[in-house]
Amino acid sequence: MLTLTLLLIMAVAIAVLVVLVIYLVDRFNGLERETKQLMQNLQQPQQAKPAGPYAGLSGKPLWDAVTGEAPENLDELVIEGVRKRYRLLLGEHISFVFGEGVSDQAKGFDAVPANTRTVRTPRTQVDSWLPPEAVEAIYRCGQGYGRNDPTELPGLRQRLDEVCAQLQMQAGLEVLQPASSLLMPPQPQAEGSAESAPAAETSAPTA
């Protein structure tokens, strides 16, 4: 009877030991898998967090982001914030290119600016990139405005508005006003010429 009891106790003890060993082995394997995964994560390069008002973007990558080709690590909410700030950057770049056209016309130069321009803002410095064909079109409008030929102005205004509106729409921005209303106000000489013509017509019959 005693022998049977001891055998039962030993059998139970062995069963408990077997279960404990299986548990410990499984736990050890789980810890090993977790350790390997942690080591792999540490070895992988850390993705840089978006920084600055333009999420760390500059130049053509910035243009690509606002026109629908954003990097995978930037969600739509971040891109929308970048796009809101991009309006001022785009306006400054357009104004610069147009002004270069006006200035070069006065100097007798013809040199289309580079389509990348470094713009300084109160918070950062960023490169602005625009399509080369748009830069040339804006520059030519500036040259035409600098010639101050009243017969050219309507066509130049239309061309400037079309190019600038296209850039804004590509960037997902609402066109708030024609670019020509800011960049091409009536020139004093053009106004004088327009006013002198009716005066001459009025005086002709008197003579």
Cα-to-Cα separation, first versus last residue: 150 Å
Give a quick account of the main beta sheet: strands, pairing sense, barrel closure. Answer: 2 strands, antiparallel
Number of strands: 2
**Residue fraction in strands:** under 5%
Order of helices and strands: HHHEEHHHH
3D structure, described in words:
The protein is 67% helix and 5% strand. With 207 residues, the protein is mainly α. The chain has a two-stranded antiparallel ribbon with strand order 1-2. Strand 1 (116-120) and strand 2 form a beta hairpin.
List the helices and strands and how they pair.
Layout: H1 2-43, H2 59-66, H3 76-107, E1 116-120, E2 125-129, H4 132-147, H5 153-170, H6 180-183, H7 188-206
Antiparallel strand pairs: 1-2
Helix pairs in contact: 3-4, 4-5
Features of this protein?
67% helix; rod-shaped; 2 strands; mainly alpha
Concise account of the structure shown:
The chain has helices at residues 2-43, 59-66, 76-107, 132-147, 153-170, 180-183, 188-206, and strands at 116-120, 125-129. The chain is mainly alpha-helical and 207 residues long. The model is unreliable at 190-207 (pLDDT under 50).
